Structure formats: C-alpha cells, structure tokens
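Quick one, tokens below. Sequence please?
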C-alpha cells in the first residue's frame, strides 16, 4: 500500500489499515529501540507507547516526511522519556541536594539512594508521594493538581513545604 493511501486510511480510522501499519513497522521499530535500550521488555513497552502516540498525533501529521521518519522521531522521544524516568531519582538527588551532599561523607550513589529512601519514608506521606510524582515520575504540577483534585497553587505550596521538609530531614 502506498504511504499516502495508508496515511489517509489511518486518519480515517480504517482498522485494516491500522493492522497493516502495525505489521509493516513493528519489527523495524523494535529493532531500532532494542539498539538503543538493551532491555527487551522495556523496548516492547516503548514500541507500544510509540504506536499509541502515533495514533494519538495522527491528525497533526502532515506527511511532509515518511511515516517511518515520523514514527522514528516519536520513538526517540519515548526513549528519552524512558531514560529520564529511569534516572530521575539520581537526578533528584544530585541536582536538588548538591549543596547538602557536599556537607556529608557519602562516598557513592548507593548510599545516597538509601538515604533518600529513608528520608522519603520519614516524611509526611503526602509530601513524600508528592515529591515522587514530581521528580521521579516527572509529572507536571498541573497534572498532579488534577489527579489530586487540588488547585495548582495548592500543589505548588505543598511542593515547597515537601522540599523544605526533605531538606530538614536530610540534614538530620
């Protein structure tokens, strides 16, 4: 099937076109993602998420590049998100606590990770959860507010208090 025809059928919502599109690009996409991420299970999840995002953003695709190029671009964003989430905890530790770490005699990231877990465990439950949502899951304040049924300002205030409590517990 020609790309322009496939694209038109996909945008129209033709289920056979979706099946054809999936079969046509799945193996190629899996190969590309596995080349970037060695974990096969995570690669499969990224491929699935890529296909879902492609379907979600299909109305915005103008066809100025090939379908593969477009899908490849979306997959690369998914891979970047994967690594951001995977290493978010380390980023939280090193970025937001760099001044405090200079004061401590912590020799490796494993010790830091254990201390972060302990501090989060000792925090008020909603504050620890809030920090995890923001810095580990990488959620935006507006999304957290919506999920918690609070205003954005309320969540921002809670985040401020949570960070302050985290710093206090970290120093103890």
């Amino acid at each position: 099937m020609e790309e322009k025809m496939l694209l038109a059928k996909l945008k129209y919502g033709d289920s056979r076109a979706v099946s054809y599109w999936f079969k046509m690009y799945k193996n190629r996409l899996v190969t590309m993602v596995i080349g970037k991420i060695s974990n096969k299970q995570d690669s499969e999840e990224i491929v699935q998420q890529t296909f879902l995002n492609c379907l979600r953003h299909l109305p915005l695709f103008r066809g100025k590049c090939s379908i593969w190029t477009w899908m490849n671009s979306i997959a690369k964003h998914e891979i970047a998100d994967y690594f951001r989430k995977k290493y978010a905890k380390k980023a939280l530790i090193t970025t937001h606590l760099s001044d405090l770490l200079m004061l401590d005699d912590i020799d490796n990231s494993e010790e830091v990770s254990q201390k972060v877990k302990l501090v989060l465990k000792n925090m008020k439950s909603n504050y620890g959860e809030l920090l995890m949502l923001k810095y580990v899951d990488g959620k935006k304040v507006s999304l957290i507010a919506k999920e918690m049924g609070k205003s954005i300002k309320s969540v921002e205030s809670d985040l401020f208090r949570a960070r302050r409590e985290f710093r206090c517990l970290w120093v103890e």
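The two ends are 65 Å apart (CA to CA). The chain has two domains: 3-85, 88-171.
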